[in-house]
Structures are given as structure tokens and as C-alpha cells.
Design the sequence.
């Protein structure tokens, strides 16, 4: 995409989208700090604690497609503001209850509210910014700011104010998200007049799911979806057993945290290069290449015998993964029309959550069968083979997208 092809958008819209994406995305990282500490104060066994921690993803998994349909039908900004307002209130309800089942319900609702903010930001990138790789790269870079500063703020709030202080920090973060959603200019985020929302709009309809799954008949959409699943599966290797392996090799928590910080920093920095790289390479092939690099960088972990080599691998992994995110969003946004952006995001979110849910289980089975070190090689090789198969199947499809990102 050339400079002249990059759509001009107002600064207000641009900053509001980046802000909404950052605050919604980083809420998940903050809850990972606060909730495990708080649930230890409840009278719950390990199984219930696991259910509580995982409940945040349940509604997102089963309701993302309908959420995307509602965005397309009712207006993205309206959805983001409505669920954003609810997201400000929900964290303050956690300290008021000791019922495990109420906590599970709150977790599901809060997880979905923050997911709507992230899905909405991606939909606006497609609608108002035409899937611009430049703007998508900028958004991806700002996400790392939230993931770097949000968890320490939540941890400090817990240390200083206990549960109320910690959950108040989540509520404040949600308020920042709501303000960003309110700052979105309505005339730039709606492609046409939208009907007024009704309560029955919250009930999923079969035709909405049919229209969403019909997008998979578009070869480019199917290709992006398959690559997206492999990408998330690769990340699942890191999120499940990476820290476990390093701890077993004698690396301290500080050293492991430093490697993850390197991963995040390079991911944020290199994502800013997305626009420039898509002017030089076909975006689909670039997306496949960086995902392969990310998987390879985590798969070779057992072969790296020093912290310096692990740091280099973390930088490569983070850089490739950081580049893949805006490429994924941009490629998908350009393939579908403006009235299907929400459906496309809902479809990809559902597939990603499925992959994120099952990949740790798959790798756990491989670990049990072959050992921890060998599991990285076996799982990484399997994912690279899957990516190669998808690339061979979709080579003509990928070639149909030139450096402009369009067929």
C-alpha cells in the first residue's frame, strides 16, 4: 500500500480507536494479576478456582459471532459505549460477594464487555480506516503500552488497597475505555443509518450465524482464518509451558519476566513497520512468513543454552508475532465489505478462543507422552507443517493480493 492509498482519518478517531483497543486489550492482563490473588481468599477448591479463572473467556467464545452481527446491524460505537459502561460497574461488584457462582457470572460478563471494546476497535479499523496496515500497525504497537503498564498498576493497587483497591483499578481502566469509546466520532464510525437497539437484539438469531459462516466461502477469508488458528496455537506453546520449562532449567522469575518483557517490547516496536513492509511484500505471504518465524523461535527453546540466546529468540518471536497481529487484522478487513466487519471479527475471535482453549491441553498431552523439552520440537514442527499445508493450499489466493492488499 502506498502512502497515497493510506486513508486519511481524523486524529480524534485515530487516537480514540487506539485508546479503546489498548484499554480493552490490557484489561485481560490486569485481571490475571488481581483475580488469582482474590480467589485465594474464597472458600473454593482448585477445580472451582480453575473454572473461575477460565470463565472470562466463556461468553466471548460462544457469543462473539452474535456480537459481531450486532455491531454490523446496530453500529459499532453504540455497542462499544453500552458494554463499556457496564464494564466500569462490574469490577466493583466482585468484592461485594463471596459466592463462587456469582463470581463466575461476573467473570463471564466482564470478559465479554472488554472483548467488545477490542472487537469494536478492529471493526472500526476495517470500516473507517479501510483495513489500513499503517493504522493497524500503530494500534498494535499501542497495545503493548497497556500490557506493560496495566499489570504493575493492578499489582500496586492490590498491595496498597487490597481487593477494593485492585478492583477499583480495573474499574478505572474500564472508565478510560468508556471515555475512548465516547470520543469516537459517530459520523465516522457508522457506514449508514442504524436501527434503534431493542432487547430482542441480544438474542442470537440463526440468520446472523448463517451470514457469518457464509464468509468462509470467500477463499481469502478462509485462508486468513486457518492461518489465524495456527498463529494462536503457536502462542499457546508460549503461554502454557514456556515459563515451566525455563524454571526447570534454573532460570529465576526475574529472568523469565525479562524475556517476556523483551518479547512485548519487540512486538510493539516492529508492528509500527507493518505499513512499510506491506509496500514491499505481498501482505498474505508476509503474514504467513512472520507467523512461521514466531513458531520457530519458540519451538527451538530447548536448544538454547544461555540467557543471551533465549533473549534473541524472544526478540524474534515477539517481533514476528507483533507483526502478524496487524497483518491479520488488515488482511481480513480488506477482504470483507464494510457491513461485514463485525461478523468477520466475531468469526476470527471465536476461532482464536477455540485454539487458545485447546492448545494447552494438546501440548500437555504431548508433554506427558514425550517429555517437556521434546514437546517444543514436536508441537512446533506440527504447527509449521500445518502452516505449510495452508500456504500451499492458498498460494494462488495469497498471490491474488498484491502489495496494495487487494485482489
Sequence:
Amino acid at each position: 500500500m502506498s502512502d497515497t492509498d493510506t486513508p486519511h482519518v481524523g486524529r480524534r478517531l485515530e487516537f480514540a480507536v487506539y485508546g479503546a483497543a489498548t484499554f480493552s486489550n490490557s484489561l485481560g492482563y490486569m485481571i490475571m494479576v488481581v483475580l488469582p490473588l482474590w480467589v485465594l481468599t474464597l472458600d473454593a477448591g482448585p477445580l472451582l478456582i480453575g473454572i473461575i479463572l477460565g470463565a472470562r473467556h466463556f461468553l466471548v467464545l460462544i457469543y462473539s459471532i452474535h456480537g459481531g452481527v450486532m455491531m454490523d446491524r446496530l453500529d459499532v460505537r453504540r455497542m462499544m459505549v453500552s458494554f463499556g459502561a457496564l464494564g466500569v460497574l462490574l469490577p466493583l461488584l466482585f468484592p461485594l460477594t463471596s459466592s463462587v457462582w456469582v463470581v463466575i457470572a461476573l467473570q463471564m460478563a466482564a470478559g465479554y464487555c472488554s472483548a467488545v471494546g477490542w472487537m469494536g476497535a478492529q471493526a472500526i479499523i476495517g470500516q473507517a480506516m479501510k483495513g489500513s496496515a499503517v493504522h493497524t500497525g500503530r494500534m498494535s504497537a499501542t497495545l503493548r503500552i497497556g500490557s506493560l503498564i496495566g499489570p504493575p498498576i493492578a499489582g500496586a493497587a492490590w498491595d496498597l488497597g487490597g481487593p477494593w483497591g485492585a478492583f477499583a483499578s480495573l474499574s478505572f481502566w474500564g472508565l478510560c475505555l468508556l471515555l475512548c469509546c465516547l470520543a469516537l466520532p459517530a459520523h465516522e464510525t457508522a457506514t449508514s443509518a442504524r436501527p434503534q437497539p431493542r432487547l430482542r437484539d441480544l438474542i442470537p438469531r440463526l440468520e446472523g450465524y448463517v451470514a457469518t459462516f457464509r464468509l468462509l466461502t470467500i477463499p481469502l477469508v478462509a485462508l486468513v482464518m486457518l492461518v489465524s488458528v495456527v498463529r494462536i496455537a503457536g502462542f499457546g506453546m508460549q503461554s502454557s509451558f514456556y515459563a515451566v520449562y525455563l524454571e526447570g532449567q534454573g532460570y529465576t522469575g526475574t529472568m523469565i519476566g525479562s524475556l517476556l518483557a523483551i518479547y512485548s517490547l519487540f512486538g510493539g516496536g516492529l508492528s509500527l513497520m507493518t505499513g512499510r513492509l506491506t509496500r514491499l511484500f505481498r501482505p498474505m505471504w508476509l503474514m504467513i512468513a512472520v507467523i512461521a518465524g514466531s513458531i520457530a523461535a519458540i519451538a527451538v527453546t530447548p536448544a538454547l543454552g544461555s540467557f543471551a540466546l533465549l533473549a534473541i529468540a524472544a526478540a524474534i518471536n515477539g517481533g514476528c508475532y507483533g507483526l502478524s497481529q496487524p497483518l491479520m487484522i488488515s488482511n481480513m478487513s480488506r477482504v470483507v465489505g464494510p457491513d461485514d466487519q463485525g461478523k468477520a471479527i466475531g468469526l476470527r475471535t471465536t476461532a482464536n478462543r477455540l485454539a487458545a482453549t485447546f492448545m494447552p491441553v494438546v501440548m500437555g498431552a504431548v508433554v506427558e507422552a514425550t517429555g517437556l523439552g521434546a514437546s517444543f520440537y514436536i508441537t512446533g514442527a506440527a504447527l509449521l507443517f500445518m502452516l505449510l499445508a495452508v500456504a500451499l493450499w492458498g498460494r494462488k489466493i495469497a498471490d491474488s493480493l498484491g502489495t496494495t492488499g487487494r485482489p
